[in-house]
Amino acid sequence: MTDTPRIAQAAPYAVEVTAGKSYFWCACGQSANQPFCDGSHKGSSFVPVKFTAEKDGKAFFCGCKQSSRAPMCDGTHKGLGA
User: Fold this and answer.
1) Is 3 helix (H, G, I), strand (E, B) or coil?
2) What span, in angstroms and rounded, lies between the C-alpha atoms of 33 and 41?
3) CB 65 within 8 A of CB 9
4) Pairwise CA distance, residues 16 & 59, whole Å
5) What is the pLDDT of residues 8-63, one digit of tens each?
6) Fewer Cβ atoms within 10 A, N terminus or C terminus of the chain?
7) pTM of the model
8) Beta-carbon neighbour count of residue 32 at 10 Å?
């Protein structure tokens, strides 16, 4: 695995989250359980990013793995041409 994350999808993942629950976002793009980590990063420099929901509702997790606000989408995918 390279040090460049794989673009899992060129759009955010809309996920219903629960207040107080922690989620571990996949930073490498290899997880089969997108947008969450399944351990596929093992042996690489990638580590999952912990996100703890402050309130119940929909959260938009980055799918392109390029967001400057990881693990949340910041719209970077719009300029990737993926």
Assistant:
1) coil
2) 12
3) no
4) 6
5) 999 999 999 999 999 999 999 999 999 999 999 999 999 999 999 999 999 999 99
6) C
7) 0.92
8) 10
